[in-house]
Automatic annotation (TrEMBL):
<comment type="similarity">
    <text>Belongs to the WSCD family.</text>
</comment>
<dbReference type="InterPro" id="IPR051589">
    <property type="entry name" value="Sialate-O-sulfotransferase"/>
</dbReference>
<dbReference type="InterPro" id="IPR000863">
    <property type="entry name" value="Sulfotransferase_dom"/>
</dbReference>
<feature type="region of interest" description="Disordered">
    <location>
        <begin position="46"/>
        <end position="74"/>
    </location>
</feature>
<dbReference type="Pfam" id="PF01822">
    <property type="entry name" value="WSC"/>
</dbReference>
<dbReference type="InterPro" id="IPR002889">
    <property type="entry name" value="WSC_carb-bd"/>
</dbReference>
<feature type="domain" description="WSC">
    <location>
        <begin position="139"/>
        <end position="231"/>
    </location>
</feature>
<protein>
    <submittedName>
        <fullName>WSCD1 protein</fullName>
    </submittedName>
</protein>
<keyword id="KW-0677">Repeat</keyword>
<dbReference type="Pfam" id="PF00685">
    <property type="entry name" value="Sulfotransfer_1"/>
</dbReference>
<dbReference type="GO" id="GO:0008146">
    <property type="term" value="F:sulfotransferase activity"/>
</dbReference>
<feature type="domain" description="WSC">
    <location>
        <begin position="242"/>
        <end position="335"/>
    </location>
</feature>
<dbReference type="InterPro" id="IPR027417">
    <property type="entry name" value="P-loop_NTPase"/>
</dbReference>
Amino acid sequence: MAKAFFRLQKFLRRTQFLLFFLTAAYLMAGSLLLLQRTRLVIQQGSRGAPTNQALPVPEEMGRAGGSEPRALQSPGPRLLVHTDALQEPALQQHGPHWLTARNSELRQLRRRWFHRLPSDQEPLQTAGLKAMKHTAEHKGTYMGCFTHDSRERTLKGAVFYDLRKMTVAHCQEACAERAYSYAGLAYGAECYCGNSLPAAAAKPQECNLECRGEKGSVCGGVNRLSAYSVEEPRAAATRRRNVIYRGCFRAPENLTDTFPASLTQPNLTVEMCSEFCSKKEFPLAVIRGQECYCGFPTRRFPGAEGQRCSSRDGGSTAGGQHCRVYQTPVQDTRCTDRKFLTTKSKVFVALSSFPGAGNTWARHLIEHATGYYTGSYYFDGALYNKGFKGEKDHWRSRRTICVKTHESGRTEIEMFDSAILLIRNPYKSLMAEFNRKYAGHLGYATDHNWKGKEWPDFVNSYASWWASHVLEWLKYGKRLLVVHYEELKQSLIPKLKEMVEFLNVTVTEDRLLCVENNRDGSFKRSGLKQKNFEPFTQEMKDLINRYILTVDEALRGRNFSGLPREYVPR
């Protein structure tokens, strides 16, 4: 009895010691994490902020109310003027206000994955309410659970992601607007469209994942697809399905070889041809007389000759030598497949830009052209929820083709082996970023924001950052490809080819044509909201124009092409 009691006493002593040790280890680990987080916040205060340096400024631009700026090709003599001569508060000193504002910007970007900003919540909440509202109005028939392979899809049409707000109704409506017959959901958040059902059925219980945006609804499963038939959209949605006229082209020698599907019918109309091609899941409809051809965009058309096609709904003239080309509601899916790099990249590439310069759009183009996800130095839940899966991946994982960054500190620049430096007109960049800060990725700031003190303070703080961001990357960047947003927009395929070659990826011509056909992406503002006033005062214009000429001179000094002429005057 005594021996058993002794053993129990010994066991309890060891247990007490073990609990004490675990408690001490837990407290030490928590202390280390707290110290590391504090250090990170302190470091972020110096990241990305423009350095208080002397900027070269042309003396002509310093004159108040002076004449128009000279052309960028001959900017004239330069003077080295200290920052206090610019009479700009943000450059005179980096006081607590500047550090707090800049540090807050970085913390907001990093927190975005865990907590939504109020500006981003409103559009997503509205979309969720719309989807829930249409659940009762727009129901299709449930067709069953099917096997699903993302690489060899049966529903080969459009693909949509909403990793936060996906519902059955949202997927059905998206497919209906693009003239598809079936909608399928997988992984609780992915929507696929098509005109034929998968061949291999699965057990009903294998579609067991709940929709991310609708409790109680099933949105497929792992490698399983919940398929629904799609009802015809109502009149309001039908209007958005109108085909887009692309132009009149000289017909290739053999249209049958160029396009895989065709139809010959008397009294052929645009609607008939578009409907036929949509059912065949082709994004292009070509009409020549009473002949309708379907296929994908191709370079085999010699060029547009609009004067030769006199009627858009009748037969083609000139003896059948020309044809009219239309874009159907069907999405070109030859470039929608994306994945992470199978092996870690040996070259660490940045996609660097000032905020509001089109970085998200450039990522959309790069991902669809290369087939690989892009990463981000920040966590943006709104982007991740719309299919930018690289947002969640750690930015130093090297599993992405390039990494988005707005940083302009020397340390942050030198850790990249090379970079694509995206530059946009500062007037457009400042307005785009101001809209994002106050209304999210797709919204617009209110007139109250523009006419209040927020806008002048924003310009004073961010205009200098636009200039210093470019100057710092030119100074510390190891290997740069400078891309101007306006040139990328105007000459998409040639510029995108340069970017893809810089990333050391080989792509096909068909994939680039597909990117051109899906060029807008999910985060393009409608552009419908126009302000009835000029947001930039003359003082703002003088300040920004000085920075424009400074950056132009710096680019030419590094043997890059200067800024596009359209940047100034304004």
